[in-house]
């Protein structure tokens, strides 16, 4: 049905009506006093969301642009870094390092498995010359639905004492707990079309004092993505280059909504939706790609049983129920599908998605589960809270 | 009055209601078939607007991001380039070159004066070893309202035979004639909040075959701004990184409007508005910063007479008439103001702005001109067409 699409992908995520209406307001000047006030308010709220007193800078870019900025502003050519690589995005940050001549040592885990914090501990402990300049970690790996154990890996980085921790929080910020100041996370990057509940178009980078210290000597070339420039203008409630005014206005609306809901409630909601989705998938006899212990609160990757094609499931649920789920990426293409439960998603959305998924696999001839079993499992989890 | 602001600045420019409504539509997936169709349509229309069969790539960035991409994808460290520098933006492209270790030789002109094509001819002719890899030109210098003679400078670049021409068309594309294929412009960058009539948030780079040839050996580091990646995905009607879906939907609307109006009419409208604005400013006894022969069709910088403060004029016209004009940049701050007549601007807007400007200077005690003289001059130009 036209205009009735429901996004259950890990971004773009659904956007609340009041944010859409803010997008539709005539733009104002990005150098105006009125807009400075919006920037001041948004920046305060971003700090609240990031649980930090550090700078939180706004870029007109995707999450990848934000993460590249988070890497290239604090490192120099030839610097040794450790990059966690257990999915498409971890792989990408290694590629960014390669592009800039950063010496990236990948610490890999199979797709669907979490990074092993011990592997980081071993490398960091062995680095008595303090050659490792940074550890780059994807918190929630969007391609697999795996949450890496950022807290433990970060503890090993802190024990090292010198290395920065640079975090891809693109699908965790605003969904999972990322307590920047409590954990001492140096650089945290994210993107607007995820937990922020607005369309794609803005990137965010939180930068702490230790990273700014590294900035002083970091020598990789940059201009548009130069966070020093962004910081200088942020101090004047502005941006060095024209920011996406309408997007910032929409962001002001969703940040206000997030403050009303409260961080604890936001995180609890995402966990509840994750747990309900996973219980339902199990009850239906489908396979969860990530283990319970390492499951992202934002996204669940599912492997259909033998004989059921992931792309067919996606096409059918879209055709009959106007629900968009994400496909598998790279070598998971056609083999897995991914359910996004991230951002502006309520309990009703989870039940809708699960019930429609049950209907869809029935339509495709899957008879190993009793229709309603998935929904029942989801209801039980939601009921427990 | 609330919600009654009229933007007469060189970006953000006014956005048509139908584009605002497109912005307010719930986003769709950036990897969906539906969005690919939008991308295909938008790309075709962008080629029409750019008068080219070359690639026209969409970045989620400001115009500066697009221009940086246009520079760093086709050059290597130590390359010698000529950079036209007669305003804030020309200066910026020199700074971008410096940031990447490109050997940028500035060809300067005073702010308010156009670049001298002869200076380029002399340098290019003297370069018998063909060391000059590119010539970087700002077509319409937003900070001064000067239009540089791109056509003539480009002719000298073509006579050189080797150097690329890289053009900042941020405030000229969609307002002034930039016939990419007819002139053989290798790289042309622009931004969404200008002639495109949508808010800030997207950048565009048109890239021709000679630039792609240079891309093969260009070795400056880049990832997010890598146009080779953008080209590869553009061939599949997609983007390497999540694009600003809602902005692209709005762009589709305004490109359709531009096609309905027609390129000739768009250019004629901007020229008419420039001429009317300039005639009015002269009739009021204020000083035009740029000469008639080098006046941008998009923006007119004005120097108020002795005793009238540019910032006071801006504050007053905003307070009493809800019209936003731009201030002077850098050393022109407080000394000049700038009237944007770019994008979604009709004849009525020009008359409104001029009449309000007349009322404003009267309020501020300027008695050297007869109230209505500026409006009369503008009406005469508009009447002549």
| Count of alpha and pi helical runs of chain A | 14
For the largest interface, the chains and their residue counts are: A-B, 55 and 55 residues
Q: What share of residues are in beta strands of chain A?
A: 15-25%
Oligomer: homodimer
What CATH architecture label of the largest domain in chain A applies? Answer: 3-Layer(aba) Sandwich
* Parts with pLDDT < 50 across at least 5 consecutive residues of chain A: none
CATH topology of the largest domain in chain A: Aspartate Aminotransferase, domain 2
Could you give a short account of the major beta sheet of chain A? 7 strands, mixed
* CATH homologous superfamily annotation of the largest domain in chain A: Type I PLP-dependent aspartate aminotransferase-like (Major domain)
SS-derived structural category of chain A: alpha/beta
Shape of chain A: globular
Q: Largest beta sheet of chain A: what is the strand line-up?
A: 2-10-9-8-5-3-4
**How many structural domains of chain A?**
2
What string gives the helices and strands of chain A in order? EHHEHEHEHEEEHEHEEHHHHEEHEEHH
Give me the Rg of chain A, rounded: 21 Å
Structure in a nutshell:
Chain A is an alpha/beta fold. Chain A has 14 helices and 14 strands.
């Amino acid at each position: 049905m036209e205009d009735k699409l429901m996004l259950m992908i890990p971004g773009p995520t659904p956007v609340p009506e009041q944010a859409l209406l803010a997008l539709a307001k005539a733009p104002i000047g990005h150098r105006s006093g009125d807009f400075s006030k919006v920037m001041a308010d948004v920046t305060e709220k971003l700090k609240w969301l990031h649980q930090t007193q550090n700078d939180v800078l706004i870029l007109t870019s995707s999450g990848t642009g934000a993460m590249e900025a988070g890497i290239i502003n604090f490192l120099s050519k030839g610097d040794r870094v450790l990059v966690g690589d257990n999915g498409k995005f971890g792989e990408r940050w290694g590629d960014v390092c390669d592009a800039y001549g950063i010496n990236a040592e990948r610490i890999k885990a199979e797709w669907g498995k979490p990074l092993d914090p011990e592997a980081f501990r071993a490398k960091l402990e062995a680095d008595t010359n303090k050659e490792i300049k940074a550890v780059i970690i994807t918190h929630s790996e969007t391609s697999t639905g795996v949450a890496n154990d950022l807290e433990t890996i970060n503890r090993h980085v802190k024990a090292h004492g010198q290395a920065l921790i640079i975090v891809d929080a693109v699908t965790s910020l605003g969904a999972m707990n990322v307590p920047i100041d409590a954990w001492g996370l140096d650089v945290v990057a994210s993107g607007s079309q995820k937990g922020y509940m607005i369309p794609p178009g803005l990137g965010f980078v939180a930068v702490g004092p230790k990273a700014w210290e590294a900035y002083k000597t970091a020598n990789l070339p940059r201009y548009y993505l130069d966070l020093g420039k962004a910081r200088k203008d942020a101090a004047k409630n502005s941006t060095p280059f024209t920011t996406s005014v309408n997007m910032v206005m929409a962001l002001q609306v969703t940040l206000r909504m997030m403050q009303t809901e409260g961080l604890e409630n936001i995180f609890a909601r995402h966990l509840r939706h994750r747990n309900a989705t996973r219980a339902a998938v199990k009850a239906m006899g489908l396979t969860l790609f990530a283990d319970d212990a390492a499951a992202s609160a934002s996204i669940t990757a599912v492997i259909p049983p033998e004989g059921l094609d992931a792309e067919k499931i996606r096409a059918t649920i879209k055709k009959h129920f106007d629900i968009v789920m994400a496909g598998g990426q790279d070598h998971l293409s056609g083999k897995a599908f991914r359910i996004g439960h991230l951002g502006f998603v309520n309990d009703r959305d989870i039940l809708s998605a699960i019930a429609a998924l049950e209907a869809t696999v029935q339509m495709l001839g899957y008879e190993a589960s009793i229709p309603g079993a998935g929904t029942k499992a989801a209801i039980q989890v939601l009921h427990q809270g």
